[in-house]
């Protein structure tokens, strides 16, 4: 049976819906005002074991696996609660569309998909809830990315330039030992000892990397053996990128202390992409925009642009005038400077810029937005890329930035939450274990 895109996430990362409470059920954890039942942990653990039946020997003992699953369920509940409190919702029609899409990708009817998904005891309602929860988490992560992650045009240009040289791609896997926010010296020392112990077992051949990741890693990909997939160098955190290029297949880097804790990184495979051959001249420019709804007939806007041009021609500092007088919110704080762009990328002023010499200043140019003055600062040869290629490069860089930032966000969320993990007898793990009183002396 094929692994469904959503169901694989649901099973392996424990995105499962609560199982119906039964008289024999008990609470595994209290998460703020919510609870996680032991039946949920059991169902998610059974799913993971079934999904990994071919590599059962690599799985950790069941008690450790259940603890990993419980932690993932805790993180799921915290994220869902945050998404719901932010007013995010997933409609039934969106779930219908997702279910139909998964079925189509696996050459199944919707009824066949539901039948296969529910054959291990999950109800159809729980299956749909799983899909809805995953859609909601994706929506929250996207909203976080849109509000937090910024990728500049120069970063996109640099990535495309690297790709034009025949970019190398790296298949990576990692093992993560996380540290809490504001970790104490003792917590850091314990984390260091744990990661050093894992590395020692790997070096001695007592464990392979996949088994070690599944058993010991705190990373969200632990139950995938730490697999990170194929990545370009631009998608690799800077702490690793410089050393990665000199590693050989099979090498393990670390331990390295990063933003989330300690990490080991394995280079599984390397492959080369063909070099891109098309290049184009790119220009670095400054601009001042005087906005106008009707530039052809707006004498005041034109007069202001001409006055600014005269001051610039007389030696006034372009950056200072841009900061004080430009109406282009995106560039004025940077002294009017734009990222490297081709002639086409500069739109209506592109032909004028191409005709200037470096450090040349244009006369006011009438555009749809108003009157523009540009100064050409320099040129270079860059990669000729379509909008789609630039979007792909921007997405690649954004994913790398999001991975680091979102992980910190989740750790902060976990640290701020009330989480009470319960023992099998119902007592809290944060409370001391009761010990029997000593037997009376004879």
TrEMBL record:
Its EC number is 5.2.1.8. It is an enzyme of class 5 (isomerase). It is found in: Periplasm. Residues 167-269, 280-378 form the PpiC domain. HAMAP family: Chaperone_SurA. The PPIase activity resides only in the second parvulin domain. The N-terminal region and the C-terminal tail are necessary and sufficient for the chaperone activity of SurA. The PPIase activity is dispensable for SurA to function as a chaperone. The N-terminal region and the C-terminal tail are also required for porin recognition. This is Chaperone SurA.
